[in-house]
Amino acid sequence: MGDGNKAGLWAALKRPSAKYSLLTLLVVGFFSGIVFWGGFNTAMEATNTLEFCISCHEMRDTVYQEYKQTIHYSNRTGVRAVCSDCHVPKDWVHKMARKIQASQEIYGKIMGTIDTPEKFEAKRLELAEHEWARMKKAESRECRNCHSFEGMNIEKQKTRASKMHKIAQDEKKTCIDCHKGIAHKKPKGMKEDDEDE
Amino acid sequence: MHKNLVSLAVAGAFLAMGSQAFAAPDWGKVPTKNIEVFHPGVTPIEWATKKSDHSGSSGLKKGETCAGCHDEKGKLSIDLKRLASKELEPKGAPKTMTFPVGVQAAYDATNLYVRLTFKAPAGAADPQDKENEVKATVMFANDKVPQGAQVGCWATCHTDARTMPGADDKKTKYVKEGAMDLMQWKSGKGAKAVDGTVADKRNMEGGTAGVKADGAKAGDTYTVTFTRKLAGGVAMAEGKAVPFGVAIHADGAAGRFHHISFGYSLGIGADGDVKAVKQ
User: Fold this and answer.
1) What sign for the dihedral angle of Cα A31, A34, A37, A42?
2) Would you call A178 and B68 a contact, using CB atoms and an 8 Å cutoff?
3) Do the domain assignments include residue B136?
4) In a structure prediction context, what are the per-residue pLDDT tens digits for chain B, which is 279 residues long?
5) Total domains, chain B
6) Contact assessment for residue B78 and residue B38, using Cβ atoms and an 8 Å cutoff
7) Per the CB < 8 Å rule, is A160 touching B56?
């Protein structure tokens, strides 16, 4: 009986419509597509805002407070990088992959994995290592949405920055190789990079 | 008569050579290099060479000097806020984190002369030295000290040395290889000049540089003059440059609570960050 129903539904979907014109179907399908697609992306973008990120106390009470003390939050020129600017890729394919991966965080939220400052602190290194690995694999793509060696005039930098950036370019390093802990506290017990030994 | 005059002059010259006071250079004719000293917090060599603590460690690996990055045309370029923070200074930072020290140097056939001029600031975080309000120290690295020309005094500064957090109170500064000469002037009454060395441990006597030190405070300015033999533990000679660093313990500070300079080179008739003038 059930099988018969399934076959019936599938058959109905496959059967050409006798009631609606092809134009009606195309127009309705086209606009439904826009509404669905627009809605999907709008919802996804809503999860990219700073407000969304700090709507959970896990982020608001910890890393957000640290980030507020840094240059990516407040600076001379008023250009602000919010959470997603660094932690979510801009292009659609990588963004989708990251969002799907981030859905694990819902599980963490339900289980209360980091729901106290102590639990967060205990997991800080592990969480940071995951993010550093992601950034390193992507060759600091999110940093480079704004910063690039091509656009950088190292002559205008302080000596220590200019010398280090010269070395970084020579050795084909990317931003995250050195710039860890610039928006949040550096975790304790960081491992040394093997390649630098 | 003429012969007598000559012999008198020769005798006078020998007398003068025997007395440091006469041999001291005319400091008015020796240029002064201002070197900023700063409170370093807990940043021993292990910290400086660890990438996760100090991203500049990759510069050190490439042969860069500390001063090469952090001395911006005579002005310090370091994160003083971080140095004074609980992360790097758990015990409390001094009120004044940096101040300049005027460094002059001269030499003759036998001796090296170094003069330091500075205003020692009050407001030490942990004034443990009750006998000496101020101590001024200069160290020189021999060519066996690992990275001696790059890191200066940091070669002697280790995480397990006394006054570092959790360190053994008996363990002094040390170098892993080679040796450094240490000369120190103390402001305490009757205090003797230190002619010391730092090898596997620090020795506050037994150096072979014949160090003499004179210091005085005029107004709020200290002037300390060191005299040492060129041929000490660290062998100096005309045409050579030697790595050195300066430390000032101000306001009764002790142990690691000094203001220190990065490592610089002292050129003896040679190029250097500080050039000793021939007498």
Assistant:
1) negative
2) no
3) yes
4) 455 555 555 444 444 444 444 467 999 999 999 999 999 999 999 999 999 999 999 999 999 999 999 999 889 999 999 999 999 999 999 999 999 999 999 999 999 999 999 999 999 998 999 999 999 999 999 999 999 999 999 999 999 999 999 999 999 999 999 999 999 999 999 999 999 999 999 999 999 999 999 999 999 999 999 999 999 899 999 999 999 999 999 999 999 999 999 999 999 999 999 999 999
5) 1
6) yes
7) yes
Domain, as residue range, for B113: 33-278
Distance (Å, rounded) from C-alpha B104 to C-alpha B91?
Answer: 33
Residue of B46, B50, B66, B69 to mutate, testing the A interface (most A Cβ within 10 Å of its Cβ):
B69
Chain A: closest CA distance from residue B70 (Å): 6
DSSP state of B29: G
For residue A164, the distance in angstroms to the closest alpha carbon of chain B comes to 7
Cβ within 8 Å of residue A170, ≥6 positions away: none
Contacts of B262 in chain A (CB under 8 A): none
**Rounded-to-integer distance, Cα B141 and Cα B244, Å:** 6
The answer to whether residue B224 sits within a structural domain is: yes
Q: Which residues on chain B are in Cβ contact (under 8 Å) with A164?
A: 55-56, 58-59, 69
Contact between residue A102 and residue A53 where contact means Cβ atoms under 8 Å apart: no
Instruction: Output the six-digit token pair for A25.
Output: 């179907």
**In chain A, positions 22-81, which contact chain B (CB-CB < 8 Å)?**
none
Q: Assign residue B156 the CATH number of its domain.
A: 2.60.40
Q: Is B58 close to A160, i.e. CB distance below 8 A?
A: no
B58 and A167 within 8 Å at the Cβ level: the answer is: yes
Residue B15 lies in a domain: no
CB contact A124 to B (< 8 Å): no
Q: Which residue of B has its CA nearest to A167?
A: B59
Q: Is residue B147 part of a domain?
A: yes
Q: Are strands B98-107 and B33-38 parallel, antiparallel or unpaired?
A: antiparallel
CA atoms of A47 and A65, how far apart (whole Å): 19
**ipTM (interface pTM):** 0.78
**From CA B113, how far away is CA B138, in angstroms rounded?**
12
